[in-house]
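Input:
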Amino acid sequence: MDRRVVVEASNVSKKFRLIKERNNSLKATVMRGRRVIAEDFWALREVSFGVLEGETFGLIGENGSGKSTMLKCLTKILRPDHGSVRVDGKVSALLELGAGYHPELSGRENVFLNGAILGVSQRELKGKFDQIVDFAGVGEFIDEPVKNYSSGMYVRLGFSVAINVDPDVLFVDEVLAVGDEAFQRKCNEKFTELRHAGKTVVIVSHGLAVVQNLCDRVAWFSHGHLMDVGTPRSVIEAYTETVHVDRQVDEAGHARWGTGEGRIVGVDWLDRDAQPAARLRCGEPAWLRLFYETQQPIEQPVFGISIRTLEGFEVSAPTSKDTDCVPDKIEGTGHVDVSFDSFRLLPGTYDLTVSLHDYGLVQTFDARRDLLRFDVERGPLHDRSGIVALGGEWRVVADDDS
Ligand SMILES: Nc1ncnc2c1ncn2[C@@H]1O[C@H](COP(=O)(O)OP(=O)(O)O)[C@@H](O)[C@H]1O
Ligand SMILES: [Mg+2]
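Output:
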């Protein structure tokens, strides 16, 4: 049987213009005046591949490797600088969280707005409305403004619209990672259903197990280059061979700034034996280690970390100064440990930013945004939903004195 190529990227290159921020102190900004240092950055370089009708096709690769940019080119949100894309059939997509959603409007109004963007008639939407709300499981929240939604609800509604408008080709970015387990199971079932119905699905995921189970073929991106396309097994194997398990990535795809007197040269989650941790579990102890290196002695350094969800919500951003852990001086190389008796992030995927500052937090010596992406798994603490498990103790007391 000859299957048609329904999604095709031919020699796609996409560049972004980056503003270089060598030193972001106020003084430096003032001194530099109006001069802006810009540099072209190629997020995709001559990428070509085709997806066959009915295929479930996965995109994998490190943070910043160009997967989302590829999806945006395929869905015509971005235009390639070179090359071309072609997609046959009715397209539906779930890209960034909340993209195309209006915060002040209710879920109901947004379903119609979003459907219209996807080119679905209002009549068709009316007919599918109950099915959409039901799959999303947002209940009576459907008439609340979506700004009151949790990120999980946002994703569920977005995904529900995207799949229920009966697309021929569905594009999904890794946003689904924010849903809870039950919803993810439902999504995976839906993908299987779409596959049986002969629909084409292009999915970005860093969950390699998901990709392995779901996809017919996989494309691996690295620094904007297409490295390999093939069966999930062979591509995932090639990919994991080149990648450190904790997905620590180099500077190429990431914002890094600072004056450079001291630098953060690495970061690792450790287990209780001070070995790189295989997994983090909600409610279990955890240890984070930052490695530093200095060009010259730094007096009273302050280290900072920031943990963000995939949608960019900052969960927590403590510094060593908050707990009065400020050495008189650091010089040469060393490390900083942050220990958590009970690590309270709920299961999900997070990005870690690290930084090194002077005591007054006026100067940044080094800041590395999203240096490490990590997963938290289910553990002894679990809350029904949200981002953190605060671990409160509950007690019910009846008012009568019987
Ligand atoms: N609008 C933009 N402006 C500048 N740089 C961008 C923009 N969008 C993405 N990038 C950069 O392009 C690279 C690829 O990004 P992206 O496609 O989002 O990667 P991935 O989805 O694989 O994590 C990254 O280095 C990112 O910082
Ligand atoms: Mg992405």
